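U., I forgot to send this yesterday:
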Amino acid sequence: MASSICALSPSVPSHLTKTTLPLFQGSKCEMSRRTFAVKGIVASGVSVSSSTLTAEALPSSNGFERLPYKAEGYNYWTWRGHKIHYVVQGEGSPIVLIHGFGASAFHWRYNIPELAKKHRVYAIDLLGFGWSDKALIDYDAMVWRDQVVDFVTEIVKEPAVLVGNSLGGFTALVAAIGLPELVNGVALLNSAGQFGDEKRESKTSEETALQKFVLKPLKEVFQRVVLGFLFWQAKQPARIVSVLKSVYINSSNVDDYLVESITRPAQDPNAGEVYYRLMTRFMMNQSKYTLNAVLSELSCPLLLLWGDLDPWVGPGKANRIKEFYPKTTLVNLQAGHCPHDEIPELVNKALLDWLTTLTPEVTLQTV
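Result:
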């Protein structure tokens, strides 16, 4: 979805002219940075516009059972002093669903009811997104890793399978290596993460007085002006729909429910500042977290449910992950960046089929 659409404008300073969140590097389709930036703002859910959706649940136009939309959210858990939203349904071996950049638990609207027929399903809102608190912190991939690790430990309380889309996929991976005894498997849907260049040496230089006291403050002011303008541009509901349709090959599920689930969290007074911090701090410090390093520490089975028509993260990345990590099962899907919401029936079936292959291992671990 627009869940992990994130890039920066070419009109910002040089260190902001490259998308460094590991989502899209190596993609065969790179948009202009300005277009990408505007889409990133919409996708991040920091628009303050609101839709007219007020009903708690709307009938699904595609005929699939759908999680009822609740403006007040479902369940809340306090983590490090912050309110974290999550959904839980069903009984059985647990699954934890982790959304992408700018989305929420409601992005799993067509997956939760079906998966809950055989499993206990949790869907969590990452800190800074969805119905969780818009905390004014320095965001880092490890913040979300710690959140998921603690969620599994304190709320789920038993071995689970982690399922993530885009940024949520990378979060699932790093959480799995941080808590191997409580993760039986990981499923990725068009995951974030980039393979590092082992030949590239990091170059560091001492910050001069001119850089620290003159150039850096000016750069930050300029960033706020540019990002503020792009943020303002992206407030229009029509823009949100346009972004969603650009990453949904079949846009029939781009509806009021989906748009509302993106725009409502943005009404939080801290949403704009969270967006600024994500764009200027989190996005610019991700190259140190590579798929090479993470996959080399992973030990559980891995499933890739990959939308091959994704305009940003094509099938090449899935093939490379499978080649790098032998314990991988790859399912190619004719869908865009968010196959779980675009073609939920196929994703649900493929995930449930794969989960049955984990049953013997899960049984042994939980006896």
